[in-house]
């Protein structure tokens, strides 16, 4: 019989650590520490990040990875610290990998609590208490299952870790090993697609001419508005785009069209993305609907078709 504090710490370590079974059984006393992260400001976005304290886990060296530390969640850290307080004093044991004398965290009465206890005692106990089967479509639920499940959860979270961060958190040397853990859930896929579609709704591309021979103080970028040209080089971020005809930067189409045609080698044409505001997007959508309605009406008048009943009909677009 193992003490409850040991079993609880082992269970939470299996659930939250993302460690391999041999890493869990080789954790040493004092492997958990509390680090303070100071407040910072992102120099690119200007977003402020508040200070916080984060529990860290020191993962022992393995055949492919040096010893490293990684952040862990509070329930696991608190359970380990509670077990360390209750853990009886024991003699150190020679580590199977480094051959150094180590005070194993999960040691009791001079014996190391190995993966067998986790696989055949702790995991079945948790599954039984949770009402879950011992196996599913992916096979038996063993000590490695929590590692892959946790990596997938961290990757699919709303502000989840990046693939490179997952690789470092798992302790992989090669990214090819990490990619098998990055299973995208349907919810995460829908969330990403929804965000991407929203971005496409609020973005348009505007045709721009670059004047190669622009004189100092004269506009070098000409934004094609269809009915005229905007000479404001900050057009993409302009807050008055909906009232261009009344702006000092506005040039009517007739004023520039002839010159552009005659001196075509002087101008370079390209597209620039412009992010629309909600009001602009609504206006664009309304104009589009009105245009479709007008085209349909004109089609009805110019291309009537008489059906069997003698009523004029047209094909819908």
Strand-helix topology:
Layout: H1 4-16, H2 21-25, E1 32-37, E2 40-41, E3 48-49, E4 52-59, E5 68-71, H3 74-86, E6 93-94, E7 101-102, E8 107-108, E9 111-112, H4 115-130, E10 135-136, E11 139-140, H5 143-156, H6 163-170, H7 175-178, H8 186-201, E12 203-211, E13 221-224, E14 228-230, E15 250-252, H9 253-262, E16 267-275, H10 278-302, E17 305-306, E18 312-313
What's this entry about, in short?
The protein is α+β, with helices and mostly antiparallel strands and 317 residues long.
Summed up, the helix count is 10
Query: Quick one: biggest sheet?
Result: 5 strands, antiparallel
* Radius of gyration from CA coordinates: 33 Å
* Weakly predicted, low-confidence segments: 306-317
Count of distinct structural domains: 4
Structural class determined from secondary elements: alpha+beta
């Amino acid at each position: 019989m193992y003490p409850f504090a040991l079993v609880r710490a082992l269970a939470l370590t299996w659930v939250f650590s993302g460690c391999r079974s041999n890493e869990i059984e080789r954790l040493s006393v004092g492997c958990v520490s509390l680090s303070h992260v100071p407040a910072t400001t992102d120099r690119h976005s200007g977003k402020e990040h508040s200070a916080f304290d984060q529990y860290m886990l020191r993962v022992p060296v393995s055949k492919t990875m040096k010893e490293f530390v990684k952040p862990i969640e509070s329930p696991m850290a608190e359970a380990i610290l509670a077990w360390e307080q209750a853990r009886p004093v024991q003699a150190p044991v020679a580590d199977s990998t480094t051959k150094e004398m180590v005070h194993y965290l999960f040691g009791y009465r001079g014996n190391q609590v190995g993966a067998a206890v986790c696989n055949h005692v702790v995991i079945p106990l948790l599954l039984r208490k949770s009402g879950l089967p011992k196996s599913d479509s992916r096979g038996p639920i063993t000590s490695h299952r929590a590692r892959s499940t946790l990596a997938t959860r961290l990757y699919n979270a709303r502000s989840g870790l990046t693939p490179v961060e997952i690789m470092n958190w798992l302790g992989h040397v090669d990214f090819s090993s990490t990619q098998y853990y990055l299973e995208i859930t349907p919810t995460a896929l829908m969330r990403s697609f929804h965000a991407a579609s929203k971005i496409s709704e609020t973005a348009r591309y505007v045709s721009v001419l670059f004047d190669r021979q622009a004189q100092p103080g004269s506009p070098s970028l000409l934004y094609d508005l269809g009915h005229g040209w905007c000479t404001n080089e900050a057009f993409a971020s302009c807050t008055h785009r909906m009232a261009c005809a009344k702006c000092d930067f506005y040039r009517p189409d007739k004023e520039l069209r002839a010159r552009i045609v005659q001196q075509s080698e002087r101008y370079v044409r390209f597209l620039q993305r412009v992010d629309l505001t909600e009001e602009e997007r609504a206006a664009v959508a309304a104009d589009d609907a009105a245009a479709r309605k007008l085209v349909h009406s004109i089609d009805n008048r110019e291309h009537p078709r008489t059906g069997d009943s003698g009523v004029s009909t047209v094909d819908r677009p």
